[in-house]
Fold this protein.
Amino acid sequence: MENLLDAYREVFVGTLEKYVARPGCEQFLAWLQGTDFFTAPASTKFHCACEGGLLMHSVNVYQVMREHFFGEGDSEESFALCGLLHDVCKAQFYKTSTRNVKNEETGQWEKKPYYMIEDAFPYGHGEKSVYLIERFMRLKPAEAVAIRWHMGGFDEAAKGGSFAISQAYDKYPLAVKLHLSDLEATYLREHGTSDVRR
């Protein structure tokens, strides 16, 4: 697993360094390396609910975006920023704990590890990622909107009937591309990538 995570980390860092020339990127990457971003899960029990899952998911989303949706007029820098950093809000978000689970074979109770959420900065999801990135470097409007709305209909604001998501997708194709890439990575490429921490 360690070699696999090293490979994902190499792709993540290498892609940012190759395509993102924006002022503040080096400082952002230094900050990110001081968090648990590279070892955190991507979820508590769904996709990539394992050590390094957040890193794997971020690279997967970028790769899906690049493979399926990069076209004439698109920006390598924008694709790298959006694909790799859309879920940066999940750094310092999960905590490992244990709970008692009954072993069905032995009937004994055993302590099992699982991931739980401990959000020290409850600022939303996509908007929190935008906020954290912009502490170091400026995003273009299309990038900020894409990251903000990458959850699509799963976003709490969209569930409440907000028309902003429809307007965002209509005005910024990058937002649609990121959302579709997140869906494909989550539900097709990463299906079944959870470990036993449920």
Summary: The first strand starts at residue 94 and ends at 102. The CA atoms of residues 150 and 178 lie 6 Å apart. The mean pLDDT is 90. Strands lie at 94-102, 109-117.
